[in-house]
């Protein structure tokens, strides 16, 4: 039976990189796919008054095995009636983890690049992203004050922590299948808990304690996984100084968002970093980048992040062989450095890079 995949290109370069990822999936010899393109995004909101039609949610929930999301152009100011469809989708489909592998590829054109192979696991449902904000006038000063609530729950922290330890084991298993010389990470699997509980001892304190307890309560299962912690500010510092020191990093929503864009800079571009929004019953691949209005419509967006997101989707649907095939083709094109988009210092178009990847499959 064909796998049904919902495609939500949404806005900006989403419309250029999602079709590229679709072509890669279509060219695989293993699984057969049926694609359904669904509406979402800020432009859809401007046309119809809704950024996420009920039909899109229903089709994903009732008919699809997985989905690929492009990017949405959320404005930085408040627009009446609008709220981000990606944040809403994560909630509707209970996609509680955002899994972001950041991997460097050796290439003659990027000798300065640090070597890293880390997996950032970002909690996807709470923290400041519950968007409980309000504004009032401070009676003392007569000036405006704005507030935001931050929610950290034991429930969400436990399930994200459990995922982090499980992923550390899965990555270790995959690594063991590679020859020693090709293994980048030579240590025991490691989970780094990212927090700021020296200041936010109640909220981040709960996150930290709960993730720590996951290991302590499953001592035997995770005996081989090292656990360490890092305050989020020094996490940024260490990531830039010695990114090779990280295997799996697990973080509350906002910190996870910020450190993953930072990690993207270490591997050359936001245009190569994929993610998967993962729940117990559904997976949605999504490049880490946004809609990039500065380059949209020019056929120069890097399709690699979207293509790797499609591979991540395959991986989470159980098609590991096909996923590895896609990663391999992408790595080959990046390391040969003949076809690179401008963000990586090349002159190729989105279409040319996609063709090159298709040829290497
Ligand atoms: P952005 O990720 O869209 O762009 C940041 C910079 O990276 C830009 O210079 C852009 O040209 C470059 N870039 C991003 N992806 C690229 C690719 N595939 N190839 C080559 N270059 C690439 O972030 P920005 O500019 O902060 O936000 C633009 C819009 O995207 C905003 O409306 C924001 O709300 C939205 N956004 C949406 C996200 C999502 O849909 N999940 C995530 C992040 C931002
Ligand atoms: Mg982001």
TrEMBL record:
What are the protein's UniProt keywords?
A: Magnesium, Metal-binding, NAD, Oxidoreductase
PROSITE patterns listed in its UniProt record? IDH_IMDH
The family database entries (InterPro entries) matched by this protein are listed as: IsoCit/isopropylmalate_DH_CS, IsoPropMal-DH-like_dom
Matching entries from SUPFAM superfamilies are given as: Isocitrate/Isopropylmalate dehydrogenase-like
Q: Which GO terms describe its cellular component?
A: mitochondrion
Q: Which cofactor does it need?
A: Mg(2+)
The residues covered by the Isopropylmalate dehydrogenase-like domain are 4-357
> What is the official name of this protein in its record?
Isopropylmalate dehydrogenase-like domain-containing protein
Q: Which organism is it from?
A: Mortierella isabellina (Filamentous fungus)
């Amino acid at each position: 039976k064909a796998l049904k995949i919902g495609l939500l290109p949404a806005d900006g370069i989403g419309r250029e990189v999602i079709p590229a990822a679709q072509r890669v999936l279509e060219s695989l010899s293993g699984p057969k796919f049926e694609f359904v393109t669904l509406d979402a995004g800020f432009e859809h909101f401007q046309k119809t008054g809704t950024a996420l039609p009920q039909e899109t949610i229903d089709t994903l929930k009732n008919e699809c095995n997985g989905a690929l999301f492009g990017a949405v152009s959320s404005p930085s100011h408040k627009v009446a009636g609008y709220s981000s469809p990606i944040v809403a989708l994560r909630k509707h489909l209970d996609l509680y983890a955002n899994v972001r592998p950041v991997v460097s590829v050796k290439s003659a054109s990027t000798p300065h690049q640090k070597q890293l192979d880390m997996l950032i696991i970002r909690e996807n449902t709470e923290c400041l992203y519950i968007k409980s904000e309000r504004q009032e006038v401070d009676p003392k000063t007569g000036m405006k004050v704005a507030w935001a609530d931050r929610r950290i729950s034991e429930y969400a922290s436990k399930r994200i922590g459990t995922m982090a330890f499980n992923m550390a084991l899965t990555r270790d298993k995959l690594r063991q299948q590679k020859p020693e010389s090709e293994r980048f990470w030579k240590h025991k699997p490691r989970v780094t808990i990212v927090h700021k509980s020296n200041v936010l001892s109640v909220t981040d304190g709960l996150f930290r304690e709960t993730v720590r307890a996951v290991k302590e309560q499953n001592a035997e299962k995770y005996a081989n996984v090292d656990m360490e912690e890092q305050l989020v500010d020094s996490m940024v510092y260490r990531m830039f100084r010695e990114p090779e020191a990280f295997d799996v990093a697990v973080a509350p929503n906002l910190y996870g968002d910020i450190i993953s864009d930072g990690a993207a800079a270490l591997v050359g571009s936001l245009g190569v970093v994929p993610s998967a929004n993962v729940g117990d019953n559904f997976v949605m691949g999504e490049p880490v980048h946004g809609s990039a209005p500065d380059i949209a419509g020019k056929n120069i967006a890097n399709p690699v992040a979207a293509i790797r997101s499609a591979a991540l989707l395959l991986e989470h649907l159980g098609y590991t062989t096909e996923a590895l095939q896609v990663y391999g083709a992408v790595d080959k094109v990046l390391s040969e450095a003949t076809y690179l988009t401008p963000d990586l210092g090349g002159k190729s178009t989105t279409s040319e890079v996609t063709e090159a990847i298709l040829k290497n499959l």
